[in-house]
Amino acid sequence: MAFKLSFSKVRKSVLGIFVLLIVFTFGYQLGVRGFTAEVSKSLQVKIDRQTPPDKNVDFSLFWQVWDTLSAKYYDKSKLRPSEMVYGAISGMVAAVGDPYTMFLPPKENKVVNEDLSGSFEGVGIEIGYKENRLAVVSPLPDSPAERAGVKAGDFIVRITDVSKKIDVSTSAITLPEAVQDIRGPAGTKVTLTLIRDGDKTPIVIELTRAKLNVPSVTLNLVGEDKSIAHVKLSKFDSQTTDEWDKIVDQILQNGKIKGIIIDLRNNPGGYLQSAVDVASDFVPVGTTVVIEERGDGRKIEYRSDRLERLQNYEAAVLINGGSASASEIFSGALRDVRHFKLVGEKSFGKGTVQEPIDAANGSGLHVTTAKWLTPSGNWVHGIGLTPDIVITPKDTDKEDVILQGAIDLFD
């Protein structure tokens, strides 16, 4: 199978969580252990039945099913070889049993790429698996989901969209399918049935999709004398490093700032390199920010390679159950290296790394290639990071108690 790698600086991602936001135009050859499919611009498919490279693999059942469908299925218009090939690939990848390793056909892959560019249409939620159930990782700031009261940790048990004729349970749904069902054009509606942790009664919320273009980094000054920089990072996407650099310039030009609060609550992650870039502003050049551990036991250290512009500032990091992946990399690094306090609630707990690989004709493959460790060697997968200062908000709170807890550290 010929995949084209197109990484900038190692386009590596811990984005299994991030990808699940909400989620043929040229000829190519696709080899999947036993057959080659050539798809032309007109989507006509020519199948050559080759002997599988692995002599221990018997492909006769595959071809038996393929031929039986072709011969007996009553509606021949539904037998689209290109879609059948995609389905076969998706099933092969799903058989690995890792929800973050997935094949994305062109439509789904386009959705993911839009998410990483920072602009898309939808309801504004990141989704993933929690306790083997489809769950909200985080609602995006000022999104339809956040305004409607969707919360990080909510389990999605049903997706309903009358216009798409969708009314499905999520018990057997794949992540790409869930993304496709929830995502849609601005102005259209989708209904989510949710179960909130600790509650037995389902919550039914109708959401109107919108055009979303959320900056990944924002700055506010907080504290009695506005001397604390409250920097909110909503994700680590392709724009984050540039947006972060502008925020750092504002902090450095303000002579009154005495401390920085990095707010990673409901940040579902994104590009590993973006997290390393942002963390590099707080740690000495050459410091290990994250460690990748491959399946063969090899360990690769990602070190800071930027000047530590914020080395003279004390900082605190805010996390909660929606802080995942690259957010946990950043949080773990700053606690291990600078001993900054983590404030809030336990993080999500995703400790694997995916490589997004561009495949033919706009499709994509996300492969889990390693697990990541904090600089001190801790693996957070399925566990999460426990804050140094645990603060659990209540619905009756009239202020942001987690943010206030961090502000109090600087008094």
TrEMBL record:
CDD domains linked to this entry: cpPDZ_CPP-like, Peptidase_S41_CPP
Membership in a protein family: Belongs to the peptidase S41A family.
One Pfam family of this chain: PDZ_6
One Gene Ontology molecular-function label: endopeptidase activity
Species in which this protein is naturally found: Candidatus Woesebacteria bacterium GW2011_GWB1_39_10
SMART domains the record matches: PDZ, TSPc
Keyword Hydrolase listed: yes
Gene Ontology annotations for the cellular component aspect, listed alphabetically: outer membrane-bounded periplasmic space
Name the UniProt record assigns to this protein: Carboxyl-terminal protease
Gene3D superfamilies in alphabetical order: 2-enoyl-CoA Hydratase, Chain A, domain 1, 2.30.42.10, 3.30.750.44
Domain PDZ: from-to ranges: 109-183
Keywords: Hydrolase, Protease, Serine protease
Keyword Protein biosynthesis set for record: no
Domain of life (superkingdom): Bacteria
Family matches, as PANTHER family: CARBOXY-TERMINAL PROCESSING PROTEASE CTPA (PTHR32060:SF30), TAIL-SPECIFIC PROTEASE (PTHR32060)
A biological process term (GO) from this entry: signal transduction
